[in-house]
Design a protein that fits this description.
Chain A: It comes from Pseudooceanicola batsensis (strain ATCC BAA-863 / DSM 15984 / KCTC 12145 / HTCC2597). The complex is a heterodimer of chains A (324) and B (724). Chain A is built from twelve helices and twelve strands. Among the domains of chain A are: 5-48; 223-323, Enolase-like, domain 1 (2-Layer Sandwich), CATH 3.30.390.50. Chain A is an alpha+beta fold and 324 residues long. Chain B is built from 18 helices and 28 strands. In chain B, the strands form six sheets. Chain B has a seven-stranded mixed beta sheet with strand order 4-6-2-13-10-11-12, with helices on both faces. A five-stranded mixed beta sheet of chain B has the order 1-25-19-20-21. Classes of the chains: A alpha+beta (324), B alpha+beta (724). Chains A and B meet through helix 12 of A and helix 3 and helix 18 of B. The structure holds flavin-adenine dinucleotide (FAD). Residues 25-33, 50, 69, 73, 96-97, 101, 104-106, 108-110, 112-113, 160-163, 210-211, 237 of chain A line the site of flavin-adenine dinucleotide (FAD).
């Protein structure tokens, strides 16, 4: 680990000013950042703790919720409002990591956690995300926890979050404060960036931008399912996961929002899939077709080919459960 | 004086069981759960400095490009790259240096330098800053792609396998693969080295101190007498700490040069590549049987790998040699010399993977013949060792099969696959027999008796298995004391050399040495009582002979009686075949949607001679069954296909089973006594549970959903491939 400065401001202004200095990085629970600092995959000169800024509350906002950036994953999962109205989020959180990690991990930190690609974590391997232009050792290497959608010839790294998958299906918005104090909000749909030829740029945040909260609009569907497939019963990242938020009207799907983990370079959602489900009567063939549309153009490697049939099976299962 | 025993024959003595054989809490349990057990890296002497190992990012000639720059970094004391540093960990019981030298890297990840600094952070940072280049080698890393030397081939043949297979009523010919696996012990390998003149003391995390001491001395070129090792507590080893590893030698070299104590703790990522892995295996198994399932032909050919110059070859066939009868046999072992990290002993080397594959093949044969898998095993139990024709010292496989089947409710299982379903989950059951060779190693121990109690001393280690408790129980039994009346001191080479922990031989070997040391004390006491040792009864501070009895304190008269016991294996090993046996039964649920497998319950029934402490024995059996489950479902060390380096070098991605994967396990330890195992009649129990349990899980998957997994582990993708 490289030596670094550490500050723990207690007001937003101080935090943003500190966060805007050269080489500064915010830290929430530190469960991802510290690991990467130990490996020197990340080496910030200045670490700014954002957990004393009063951003740890979950507040009602109209029919929706405003979730502070530093609300712990465990607290968010246990919140009665979340459990009642956004069960897909609660389930996704509880399917992630371990009890100890969820006690520390924060909402913003979870959204911004880095990929688990082993070549990204290994400084002796080439990685365009770590060192732009260095090449990608994952291509042609041991590939399993990698993406099949959104990839480029420069990067096939997967976004590993469970929470963010559920949030995508819930149409979450991110509240951001810039270093000058300006506030703006972004749909989660437009928050992440595909790797293309700049895999080191992962989101639309600018230097010094601080996430202050995540907004959930009123739930658009009451039928919510999260299903995660993994190598062991707990404490493993998703091979594939599916979050579905549906509303039924007169036997037809009136609202469909389906998001996917384990397959995309970002928490994945495909508007085409949602659109083809909306207004339709549930059927095997409809759900099969949705699965086909989803993986159009999938970029599979030796080790990730199984994800195509797997995500299709899980999607179908989740949809049937949701409409049942 | 000392009492020596070479185990040449069966023992005719009786062992009383008051303290011995009783379910007893582990002595170190409280210390461990309250953090008071101090491990190697937890001692901080005055002037302590810290070392971090540097890995080779490639193979070939090593260059430390920016050495001077790193040496000048703040806090950095030295960059050590010394020809005495070792390439990889020593093999178990080697007693001499492994391959040394850091001028070239034989595999990616080899430690090629040590950076020492005033703080751990400075050392770690400097180690990462050191630019290592490797040039001039692109060694083969795929075991299937190299030619195997004659020296690396071992064959046992009896009868005519091919002919027998042709004539067999039922035949199967299958190939199974198991991946590289790792011990992944909780405590990373660590050493703290300190010199006092010519004498070196290393606090280390090691399993077999008498050999480790000689290994370190040989590496450094100093006398063994000048090395003292201390390993009073070891946070798991499972074979990975049988031999010394890179950190111990590097720490000693640096400490010598700096004149300060040096601590080196391996990074978790280095634990996975510097310390020996379990070799991957490819196993072709051919079986021929008659209409009743009686085997007439057994073919088992294994391909394993290791680095050049390593003696160890994963002994895949070890269990096959004695498991089942068949007149025609061909067992072939081949070792590919490749440049993945070194392979070595990992808990139950040989049977863990060999019996697992064989017991899957037996399940396939049972299907083919159309008989119950338990019946198939029962029909093939040999009367004598099938190859050497000597009798078994004891053999209770049949009993464990019956007992396990009854506990599990095996009779209720549908024979055919895909018969039970609960929602999306296919439910099925499978079983496998367990086999593991029994070994004894030379061991010595000293016991001192005073009126206040006894003290046991040996350099034996307790790697989390319960050695402290068991050795205390043995001495208490022999000397008529309560367990609390015995203090046990372990893990110090100043004490007589024990067997060390490994190969399941610890309790029986070092335990026997303790027993013999006590026998010497008993003889002395009998002398003072003027009677034969056989007439002596020791109980709660009184010494009794016939109807005469005297208080122990009076008899000792303030003196200390010392006994020294020494055991070594003898001709018994040639006269009988000694092994342990068991049976595992598993019920799994397999998702028809995802291919995920969940273990629902597991029953294990084992026979391993006299059980010295049911609690620690059960814990070993259970640990083994969990390991088997991990091998079946989740564990695989992945090698990069281009340079062989270990890709998943942490506990997030090397998937050991977690609590949620393991249901309650029902474990029975059958009553048995093996007189060929020395005066305690006890055999090893530490590894037996792994040698079959994984096959039970794989066989259960087949019974559940009809998918036969032959490439382990059975991750969802592999099961899914077979589901419609
Ligand atoms: C062994 C292991 C298993 C895991 N398994 C899973 C799993 O199954 N599923 C899953 O979803 N996750 C899993 N995780 C990941 C875990 O969810 C993340 O580590 C955690 O959510 C990160 O949150 P944090 O607050 O600790 O982030 P930190 O480590 O503090 O920060 C992560 C990143 O976010 C940035 N950041 C933090 N807060 C802000 C802010 N307010 N504004 C701007 N930037 C900010 C930091 O600069 C940093 O770059 C696992 C982690 C581990 C170690």
């Amino acid at each position: 680990m490289r030596p670094f400065d550490f500050t723990r401001p207690d007001d937003l202004e101080g935090a943003c000013a500190a966060g805007f200095t050269e080489g500064a990085t915010f830290i929430g629970g530190g469960t991802n950042l510290i690991d990467l600092m130990k490996l020197e995959v990340m080496a910030p000169a200045h670490v700014v703790d954002v957990t004393r800024l009063g951003l740890d509350r979950i507040e009602d906002e109209g029919d929706g919720l405003n979730i502070g950036a530093t609300v712990r994953n465990a607290d968010l999962a246990a919140d009665p409002r979340v459990r009642r109205r956004y069960p897909v989020l609660s389930r996704a959180l509880l399917a992630g990591a371990s009890g100890q990690l969820r006690n520390r991990a924060t909402t913003a930190g979870n959204l911004l956690q880095r990929t688990r690609c082993p070549y990204f974590q290994d400084r002796d391997s080439a990685c365009n995300k770590r060192t732009p232009g260095a090449g990608c050792a994952a291509l042609g290497g041991e590939v399993r926890n990698h993406a099949i959608l959104g990839t480029s010839e420069h990067c096939i790294a997967l976004h590993p979050s469970d929470m963010a998958v559920a949030m995508r299906a819930l149409d979450a918005e991110i509240e951001v404060r810039d270093p000058e104090g300006g506030m703006r909000s972004m749909d989660l749909d437009h928050f992440y960036r595909l790797p293309r030829d700049t895999p080191h740029i992962e989101t639309r945040l600018e230097p010094g931008d601080l996430i202050t909260s995540v907004r959930l609009p009123a739930p658009k569907g009451d039928r919510q399912i999260y299903r995660k497939v993994r190598d062991r019963a707990s404490y493993a990242f998703a091979l594939v996961s599916v979050a579905a938020v549906l509303r039924m009207e007169g036997g037809k799907i009136a609202h469909a929002a389906v998001a996917f983990g384990g397959i995309g370079t970002e928490p994945w959602r495909d508007i085409e899939v949602d659109a083809m489900l909306t207004g339709e009567t549930p059927s095997d063939s409809l759900f099969d077709k949705a699965g086909e549309v989803l993986v159009q153009g999938a970029d599979v490697q030796d080790g990730t080919a199984f994800k195509v049939p797997l995500v299709q099976r899980v999607l179908k299962d989740v949809l049937w459960r949701a409409v049942a | 004086m000392s009492v020596q025993l070479k185990v040449d024959d069966r023992d005719t003595g009786e062992v009383t069981q008051n303290v011995l054989g009783r379910d007893t809490e582990r002595r170190d349990a409280r210390q461990k759960v309250t953090g008071r057990a101090t491990y190697a890296a937890e001692i901080r002497p005055e002037g302590l400095v810290h070392g971090a190992l540097v890995r080779a990012p490639g193979m070939g000639r090593v260059e430390l490009a920016n050495r001077a720059e790193v040496e000048a970094m703040p806090g950095v004391l030295m960059v050590l790259s010394d020809a005495r540093m070792i390439r990889n960990a020593a093999q178990g019981a080697a007693g001499e240096a492994p391959v040394q030298g850091v001028e070239t890297a034989a595999y990616v990840g080899q430690p090629v330098a040590l950076v020492v600094a005033e703080s751990f952070e400075a050392a770690a940072h400097a180690a990462r800053t050191l630019t290592v280049t490797c040039e001039g080698a692109s060694n083969e890393i795929d075991p299937e792609k190299v030619e195997i030397a004659e020296d690396d081939t071992d064959e046992t043949a009896q009868g005519d396998l091919e002919a027998a297979l042709r004539e067999a009523r039922h035949e199967i010919d299958r190939t199974y693969t198991t991946p590289s696996m790792h011990s992944a012990a909780m405590e990373p390998h660590a050493a703290l080295a300190e010199w006092d003149g010519a004498r070196l003391t290393v606090r280390a995390s090691l399993q077999m101190l008498r050999y480790n001491r000689a290994e370190i001395a040989d590496c450094l070129g100093i006398d063994t007498e000048n090395v003292r090792l201390l390993s009073p507590f070891v946070g798991g080893g499972f074979g990975s700490k049988l031999g010394i590893s890179a950190e111990a030698v590097a720490a000693a070299l640096a400490a010598r040069e700096l004149g300060r104590p040096v601590r080196v703790v391996q990074h978790r990522r280095s634990v996975f590549e510097v310390n020996t892995r379990r070799s991957e295996t490819t196993q072709r198994i051919r079986l021929g049987a008659d209409a009743e399932g009686r085997l007439d032909a057994i073919g088992h050919e294994a391909l394993v790998s290791n680095l050049p110059e390593e003696d160890f070859s994963e002994p895949v066939l070890q269990g096959t040699h004695f498991a089942y009868a068949a007149r025609n046999r061909l067992l072939v072992q081949r070792t590919a010399r490749i440049h993945r990290p070194a392979a070595g002993s990992v808990r139950a080397p040989g049977e863990a993977v060999g019996i697992t594959a064989f017991e899957i093949a037996m399940d396939e044969l049972a299907d083919e013949v159309g008989i119950d898998p338990v019946e198939l095993r029962l029909a093939n139990i040999p009367e004598k060792d099938p190859e050497s024709d000597v009798p078994f010292s004891s053999h209770m496989l049949a009993e464990t099969l019956h007992d396990g089947a009854a506990r599990f409710g095996w009779a209720d299982r549908p024979r055919a696959a895909r018969q039970r379903r609960e929602g999306e989950w296919w439910i099925g059951s499978g079983m496998a027999a367990c086999f593991r060779v029994n070994m004894m190693m030379p061991a010595e121990a000293r016991v001192r008796l005073t009126a206040d109690g006894a003290i046991v001393e040996t350099d034996m280690t307790d790697i989390g298995t319960g050695s402290y408790s068991i050795l205390g129980q043995i001495a208490a039994e022999a000397l008529g004391l309560t367990a609390e009346g015995v203090e046990v001191r372990l893990g110090d080479t100043d004490f007589p050399p024990g067997s060390g922990s490994g190969g399941s031989f610890g309790a029986a070997s070092t335990g026997t040495a303790v027993w013999l040391a006590c026998a010497e004390i008993r003889t002395a006491l009998a002398g003072r009582m003027d009677c034969e040792p056989g007439e002596l009864t020791l109980r709660e501070g009184t010494v009794q002979c016939g109807n005469r009895s005297r208080p122990l304190a009076e008899l000792l008269n303030g003196e200390t009686l010392t006994g020294h016991g020494e055991v070594e294996p003898g001709k018994a090993e040639d006269k009988v075949r000694q092994a342990t046996f068991g049976a595992c039964f598993a019920e799994v649920a397999v998702s028809d949607v995802t291919g995920e497998t969940r273990l629902r319950r597991m029953v294990g029934s084992f026979a391993a001679g006299r059980i010295l402490n049911p609690r620690t024995a059960r814990s070993q059996a259970q640990g083994g069954m969990i390991w088997g489950t991990g091998m079946a479902l989740t564990e695989a060390l992945l090698h990069d296909r281009r340079d062989g380096h270990v890709v998943n070098r942490d506990l997030a991605e090397y998937h050991l089973p977690v609590h949620a994967d393991i249901p309650e396990m029902d474990i029975a330890l059958l009553e048995e006594s093996d007189p060929w195992a020395g005066p305690l009649h006890a055999k090893g129990i530490g590894e037996l549970g792994i040698c079959g349990s994984g096959a039970a899980v794989i066989n259960a998957i087949h019974n559940a959903c009809g998918v036969r997994v032959r490439d382990l582990p059975a991750t969802p993708d592999r099961v899914l491939g077979g589901l419609s």
